[in-house]
Amino acid sequence: MPDARPTDVGIEALFVDLPRQFLDLGTLARANGVDPEKYYFGLGGRRMAVPAPDEDPVVLASNAARGVLAAGGVAPTRVGLVVVGTESAVDGSKPIAAWVHRAADLPSDCRVFDVQHACYGGTAALGIALDWIASRARPGRKALVIATDVARYEIGSPGEPTQGGGAVALLVGDEPRVVRFEDHPEAVHAEEVADFWRPTYRSTAVVDGSYSLECYLRALDGCWGRFRRDTGRRFSEFEHLLFHAPFPKMAFKAHRRLFEAAARAGELPSGAEPGADFERRVLPTLWANAEVGNAYTASLYLSLAGLLENDAVDAAGARLGLFAYGSGSCAEFLAARVGDDAAAWRGRTGLRQALRERRELSHAEYLQFRAHGEELSRNGTLRVPTRSTGPAFCGTWEHRRVYRDEALAVPGSSSQPLGRDGRSAR
Fold this sequence. Notes:
Elements lengths: L9 E8 L3 E4 H7 L4 H5 L6 E3 L7 H16 L6 E7 L10 H8 L7 E5 L5 H15 L6 E10 L12 E10 L5 E3 L5 E4 L5 E2 L8 E2 L1 H23 L8 E4 L4 H17 L9 H8 L5 H6 L6 H10 L10 E8 L3 E9 L12 H6 L2 E2 L2 H17 L12 E6 L2 E5 L22
Parallel strand pairs: 2-15, 4-5, 4-6, 12-13
Antiparallel strand pairs: 1-7, 1-8, 2-3, 6-7, 8-14, 9-14, 10-11, 13-14, 16-17
């Protein structure tokens, strides 16, 4: 077997941050003249996160970064690498990682950069961090990986009910209390396809839905085929399977694909049913995705947080198979094992708190948020910030994005940061 990454590296802590608003998919369906069952059961979702104009991917990433350091009990000075996976960059040059570096009060001897490849970016960032830790380039230092995105499609388009957003921060190191990645050759698949894209002159994505589904499943076949060939591992060996889930029903389709391949290979016991197998191994990972919608790069790791926060499942020591897919395209299959203290992370990932703090929007409010977001993408104009905790985007000054933070705010005001010359940036 080819050399592979050492097994003593993985995820030490995990934290989720979400927009503080949501739209029920039934509300959206009725506004669009569609039977709600088409969204609820056709897509498998219930609600979709709706970012306020001041909840951009930088804000989500910054709050997740602060949260994971606190959850992991790690001082900022111990972080030596920050890699952000995103396809929702807010600047054509400056990486989100640079803003995260400041917001999390990280040291100056820290490498920071972003990775872009559609929804695969978060997994690509994780791979870089795992290899960096394994190399022991900076013994004793940790890596911070953040997947942060906002999924936005044209109003009234088929993609509209698959919107969402959020950030998941992963603290990566050589004490993998949450997830340890197993030693195996890379199982990747890449090909240039036009299944999903967002030109630089657009704020919303374009997707060829049926073709994207085909590309996703073809990439899954490629990754699983390589993993199965090079490791000899079987489908039935994994207690849980996590799939990139632009909508939860996609994970159902992906599971069925692998189940049928395993059945043809004679790997499953007589009488095994795909529906029961899905409910046991995949469904426990999807409840958070059904509440949040598509979070692009963060989608797969939102499923991981959902598994850890699932009260009905004891995931301690469970063997995981993780499939990441990014349109365009690149995909990867990873094998991992959950740490022994998995139950200790219930209530500590930030997921349930973020869901509790949300408020439901009417369809009219949702459209207003969208209108403000479109205005922001055109000229940098931002309405009054609505986020009340952590850093928030306050607007632009000299075409620079300005973020509110208690440490940088004007005395007596939490929403008017100072500009470079001491004048209010608002």
